[in-house]
Amino acid sequence: MQGEFDGNMDEERRNHERYDNEQLLLNVARPGIKGFLRLNPKADCVDFSLAGLQFTTKQAMKPGEALVLDLCVYDIELTEIYGEVVTCIQEDGGLWCCGVKFCYEDRRMKRPNIKRSLLQIEDKLRSLNLYPSVTA
Fold it and tell me: Domains of the chain (ranges plus CATH)?
């Protein structure tokens, strides 16, 4: 995956299918001491792809800001995914929509389970988008 995404969101949309589903739970934190000193944002995932994701939050983020993400969808849980904010646009109601790319080049992202788990999350979200559950 290294080098597949250079930060251009239009290019990313052409290369990676995006999946939206409220079943994806997301925790966002700032790495290192910043994560302890500042309040970490509460975030709701908007969509997900293998290159990154988008989320809404009440806190503005700066492009280039490093983040640590925890992802969970049903039985698949992935912690300490390193990402970088590439966009942050203010929306109605005081919310910010932030685009984050996964930092595959980071040495901490080289663990073998990361790519496999991201592929499992993508597969689960694809299935949920193709076959949404019907509730009465």
Answer: 9-122 (2.40.10.220)
